[in-house]
Specification:
single chain; 159 residues; alpha+beta; OB fold (Dihydrolipoamide Acetyltransferase, E2P); 3 helices
Length: 159
């Protein structure tokens, strides 16, 4: 057996043993963002783009939480201020997360974006029934401390 074959054989043996003995942990990727000093998570598969500098055109006769629209490479995208949508006061510094909700792109104005994390599915807990925040579908503890609230983007638009 050549050295190359031995090297590959040694690398694959522990993986095969680990796959047989340990159950697979199912995880989902979430992008963590901050709004009003709270950590929120959004399914990473829904995130299209992050924008830090963009001019928002205001619109008349829209709900108070719709800050306006942006033109992103020829596509008109409505911008929702997550703080206003959750009943909090407006903030100065922010960035836009462009997300895909039911095949529609929407911008969510947030205070800041933290990082991408893998969250085991079995650690996500449902929100308490008496919770007044209807846009939150679940919550979980983060490894470095703190709690992440999971934002339900469908409810953000339709709720």
């Amino acid at each position: 057996m050549s050295e190359e074959n031995v090297l590959f054989a040694r690398e694959t043996e522990p993986d095969a043993a680990a796959a047989e003995g340990a159950p697979e942990i199912l995880t989902d990727k979430y992008l963590i963002f901050v709004s009003d000093n709270l950590f929120y998570g959004i399914d990473a598969e829904q995130v299209v783009e992050l924008i830090t500098e963009h001019s928002i055109t205001r619109l008349p006769r829209v709900p108070h939480y719709v800050r306006g629209i942006i033109n992103l490479r020829g596509q008109i995208i409505p911008i929702i201020d997550i703080r206003l949508r959750l009943g909090k006061p407006e903030a100065g510094e922010n960035c836009i997360m462009v997300v895909n909700v039911d095949n529609n792109c929407v911008g969510i104005l947030v205070d800041g974006v933290e990082k991408m994390v893998d969250i085991p599915r079995d650690t996500i807990l449902p929100m308490p029934t008496q919770n007044p925040q209807k846009l939150i579908s679940g919550m979980c503890s983060l490894a470095e401390g703190g709690t992440m609230l999971i934002l339900d983007c469908s409810l953000l638009l339709h709720g």
